[in-house]
Amino acid sequence: ILGEIVSLLPTKEGARTQTLASRWSHLWRTAPLNLDCRDLPADDDGILLGAFLSAHEGPVHRLCLPSRHLRDRAAAVDGWLRSPTLDNLQALEFYLDTPVRYGSFMHSPPASIFRFSSTLRAATIAQCHIPDNAVEMLRFPQLQKLELVEAKISEGSLASLITSGCPALESLLLKTCGSFHIRGLRINSPTLKFIGVFSMFVELIIEDAPSLERLLHIILHVKMRLTVTSAPKLEMLGYISEYADSKMTFGSTSIQVAIYVSCIAFSRFLSDIFFMSREVTYQLYLLMS
């Protein structure tokens, strides 16, 4: 029980349990850990993380690293990910901690992430370039949650990643991927239950998504055409646009936006939950054909 308590604590507080009592001193070294660099001093996070992974005797289930390390410490990141402590890693997050400059060079995720193909269930990839040849090799059969933040990836590769690379995917969040030339996306997935789009997409087509329950597009000032061909379980639609030529099509029914499309927008961009509830109401003017 004590080991489970330690595993639920933030990294810094978990390490401090060694000073509580003699019976707690060994727990930190063997407890399953969730290592989050946001809990560490920014200047020393790389040094401390390396020390943790070298000294820890138990498994690490979740690892969160700032995406800048892919640029500044690429070799070190690759080495960390090869640590035996991470053999059963279930969640990997490269989180965005610095502003993205459009046109800046982006590194690809290290090759060592492929070794988590049989264990990884949740992933956040931020400020990375995911080339087509890498997507062809990506296979994460257990992955259920995927978040791409400021990621550079082609439309074809993104569709392939959703369809064949992650066959168990249930939650997908795309945040400003459109800044890197993704102008549209076609979804075919038997497992997806949630899609969140905070991006500059021009067109989103849901061709076949029998499990989809929530589809949220959360940008006020971007025109977008949404087509839903088959999503029989869709219950929540969070789509907001102020452009008059935005259009939604459900089967054979088209909805043309005259002024605003209004709905309840549930938007939460926590990577481990993938949505939060925030109510936004606008006036609704619809023309149906």
UniProtKB/TrEMBL annotation:
<feature type="domain" description="F-box/LRR-repeat protein 15/At3g58940/PEG3-like LRR">
    <location>
        <begin position="77"/>
        <end position="263"/>
    </location>
</feature>
<dbReference type="InterPro" id="IPR055411">
    <property type="entry name" value="LRR_FXL15/At3g58940/PEG3-like"/>
</dbReference>
<dbReference type="InterPro" id="IPR055302">
    <property type="entry name" value="F-box_dom-containing"/>
</dbReference>
<dbReference type="Pfam" id="PF24758">
    <property type="entry name" value="LRR_At5g56370"/>
</dbReference>
<protein>
    <recommendedName>
        <fullName>F-box/LRR-repeat protein 15/At3g58940/PEG3-like LRR domain-containing protein</fullName>
    </recommendedName>
</protein>
<dbReference type="InterPro" id="IPR032675">
    <property type="entry name" value="LRR_dom_sf"/>
</dbReference>
